[in-house]
């Protein structure tokens, strides 16, 4: 018997699929930069080698989170201080990674305007403070305070923070003013003290010829002030011995500034200096006057101890109702030195009717202390009632150069 076999052949069509599961978290990396009142976060260093990054989330101090597909984000309107910035990176598999960094916002430039607002402002150009005091307390060390308008000062702006240095200036090419308030006149407009430093440029301190018992600018307790180009101190009208500037045991550098049209009753209409250091490197002190004819110790510049060095610039057309038209120097119990290395002292006048009035310089030192007057260069000319007068045995006078000439009735008087 024969056997038959049937061979069945099946053809199979198979589809092969491949699946990969993302088991790796992304990597979150950030850098932060600050400018004015903003923090900008850059998360471009973040990565995901598996499914790729889907989005980024940003938060300040772990509060509100902002979701974005962009790898940068900027927080604006921030107050001065430290912030913790968080970034969460999410990949396409839903896995996340979070990192954070602490950033300090420090105001390098702060703006002030009469139309600003201290309560809601952040000190930016578009949202300025209204108070110069608020601006000073917010700006960082070595920062800039920029005026966007004139400010009428019914308060004293006190730059008091030890070792803090700031520049006070007007915006762009403008020149704005700090103006004495007629309704609150007996205040100094600006006080710099306590080892702080301030540089004034393109700004006017204006007394508006409003009677006041305070100076426009006060410098005290080891502070340092620079009065630079286009800084002007003007129109003080003192009811006592304070006019434009009073400086007490501190340092003033005049580098191109103008001090003009200030009036005091006596003892320093432009500058009253007490045991201080004053350097006139350039600039002009002009048309300042004292008006009390019955009291001694006048002058556009009154010094009681300390040092004054004039390297350049001019002191001109100042007048005293008593003595020392340009300078009156009184050593009393303190030693002081006056050095004229350049510049010009011209056309100043003193009205004292008896003795030597000293239209240019009057140095008075006969009881105690010691005064040194040195002239090495410069011009002292055209001054009425003598160019240089020095009075007392404790004055040391030397002239090794310069031109002291054409003063009336004579150039130099010692008595």
Q: What's the β-strand tally? A: 38
How would you state the average pLDDT, rounded?
A: 90
Structural class assignment: mainly beta
Q: Percentage of helical residues? A: under 10%
Strand composition percent: over 45%
Task: Give the termini separation.
Answer: 165 Å
Show unreliable segments. none
- Overall geometry comes to elongated
Our count of helices gives 1
Largest sheet: 25 strands, parallel
From the structure above, extract its key features.
about 425 residues, 38 strands, mainly beta, about 50% strand, 1 helix, 25-stranded parallel sheet
Question: What is the fold's blueprint, element by element?
Answer:
Layout: E1 31-35, E2 38-42, E3 53-60, E4 65-68, E5 72-75, E6 81-91, E7 96-105, E8 107-112, H1 132-138, E9 139-147, E10 151-153, E11 157-159, E12 165-170, E13 176-180, E14 190-192, E15 197-201, E16 203-206, E17 211-212, E18 217-220, E19 224-227, E20 231-234, E21 237-238, E22 245-248, E23 251-260, E24 263-264, E25 271-286, E26 289-290, E27 301-310, E28 314-316, E29 319-320, E30 327-330, E31 336-346, E32 349-350, E33 361-364, E34 371-381, E35 388-391, E36 395-399, E37 403-405, E38 412-414
Parallel strand pairs: 8-9, 9-12, 10-13, 11-14, 12-15, 13-16, 14-18, 15-19, 16-20, 17-21, 18-22, 19-23, 20-23, 22-25, 23-25, 24-26, 25-27, 25-28, 26-29, 27-30, 27-31, 28-31, 29-32, 30-33, 31-34, 33-35, 34-36, 34-37, 35-38
Antiparallel strand pairs: 1-2, 2-5, 3-4, 3-6, 6-7
In short:
This protein is mainly β and 415 residues long. Helices cover 2% and strands 49% of the residues.
């Amino acid at each position: 018997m024969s056997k038959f076999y049937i061979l069945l052949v099946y053809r199979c069509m198979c589809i092969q699929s491949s699946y990969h599961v993302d088991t790796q978290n992304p990597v979150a990396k950030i850098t932060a930069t600050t400018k004015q009142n903003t923090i900008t976060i850059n998360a471009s260093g973040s990565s995901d080698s598996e499914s790729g990054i889907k989005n980024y989330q940003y938060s300040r101090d772990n509060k509100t989170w902002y979701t974005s597909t962009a790898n940068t984000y900027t927080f604006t309107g921030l107050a001065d201080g430290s912030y913790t910035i968080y970034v969460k990176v999410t990949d396409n598999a839903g896995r996340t990674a979070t990192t954070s960094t602490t950033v300090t916002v420090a105001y390098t430039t702060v703006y002030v305007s009469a139309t600003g607002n201290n309560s809601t402002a952040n000190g930016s150009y578009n949202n300025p403070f209204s108070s110069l005091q608020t601006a000073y307390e917010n700006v960082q060390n070595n920062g800039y305070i920029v005026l966007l308008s004139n400010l009428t000062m019914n308060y004293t702006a006190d730059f008091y923070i030890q070792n803090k240095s700031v520049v006070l200036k007007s915006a762009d090419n403008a020149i704005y003013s700090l103006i004495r308030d007629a309704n609150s006149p007996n205040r100094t407009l600006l006080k710099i003290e306590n080892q702080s430093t301030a540089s004034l440029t393109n700004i006017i301190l204006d007394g508006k010829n409003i009677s006041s018992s305070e100076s426009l600018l006060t410098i005290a307790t080891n502070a340092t002030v620079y009065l630079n180009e286009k800084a002007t101190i003007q129109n003080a009208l003192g009811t006592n011995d304070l006019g434009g500037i009073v400086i007490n045991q501190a340092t003033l550098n005049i580098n191109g500034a103008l001090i003009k049209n200030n009036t005091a009753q006596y003892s320093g209409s432009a500058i009253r200096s007490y045991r201080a250091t004053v350097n006139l490197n350039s600039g002009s002190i002009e048309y300042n006057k004292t008006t009390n004819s019955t009291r001694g110790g006048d002058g556009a510049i009154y010094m009681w101890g300390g040092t004054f060095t004039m390297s350049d610039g001019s002191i001109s057309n100042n007048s005293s109702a008593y003595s020392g038209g340009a300078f009156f120097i009184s050593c009393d119990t303190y030693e002081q030195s006056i050095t004229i290395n350049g510049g010009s002292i011209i056309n100043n006048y003193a009205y004292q009717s008896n003795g030597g009035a000293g239209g240019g310089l009057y140095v008075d030192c006969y009881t105690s202390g010691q005064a040194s007057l040195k002239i090495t260069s410069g011009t002292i000319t055209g001054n009425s009632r003598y160019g240089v007068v020095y009075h007392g045995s404790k004055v040391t006078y030397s002239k090794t150069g310069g031109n002291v000439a054409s003063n009336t009735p004579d150039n130099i008087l010692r008595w």
